[in-house]
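Subgroup meeting minutes
Present: P.N., E.W., G.H.
Scribe: E.W.

1. P.N. recapped why we're keeping a running log of single-chain structure predictions: easier to compare across weeks, and new members can see raw inputs and outputs side by side.
2. G.H. added today's entry (277 aa).
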Amino acid sequence: MNPSEQPLGEVVASDASIQGGVVLAASGASVLPGSTVDAGATAATIKLRRGGSVRVCPGSRITMNVMQPSQQQGMLLSLGTGSLEAEYELSSAADTIITPDFRLLLAGPATFHVAVSVDAQGNTCVRTRGGNTGAILVTELMGVGAYQVKAGDSVSFAAGKISGAAANNQECGCPLPAATNIPAVAEAPSMSEPTPNPSPVAVQPAPSIAANETQPAPPAKPNDVRVEVDAPFIAAGFQSGCCPAHRAAAGVCRDGSGAASGEGRIGCARVFHEDAA
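Output recorded in log:
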């Protein structure tokens, strides 16, 4: 197959349009030299057959070709207004990016990761991204001005002139995707009921004992009569010997024998004086 008829890469995009030579495949559409790729609302990525990729930013158009069709050495990318990003490694070949005002030369051996943007006024920005190791030579198409963009540089050229070169703080290449706001998901309530705080237990003071219940008995006074009951009972009558004979003098019984008349009396009561021996 003629090198000019070999596919340069495969387009990966859902809304991109291709004009020129196209080879349909199960995984996508392969573009031939001389084809034009238009990106739609999203960026179109072209996976290069030799390795690496070219990204056509939304709303941009590029034309892909080869510098030497007989040997297919070096790729030529033409960009009107819009933006592109290139990321690949070159050994000994050199690629060229053409804009309405400039020629950008990417010469190997080096790894390139570069973004290029052009607006309708000819303002052009060139930015090298992380991983880029090669320098980019920028020359005017209609003049003699030249500028070398080194690795890590970001340069803008105003009105399509090298004399308007200045450090660029603006972003080049494809715009960053808009951040998607994901509503926060409320935490599901716990199924277990919260444990209530324990109620304070009221401690009731112990009932105080009345003072009169704890006071000691008053001391006995002289000549007080004290009664001691051994076993009170109700009897039908007193038996003889109810009181001992030696207590008869105390007046417990009517006579010394201890016999008593009458029923229902309390028996066996001992009455004596405190001072009795």
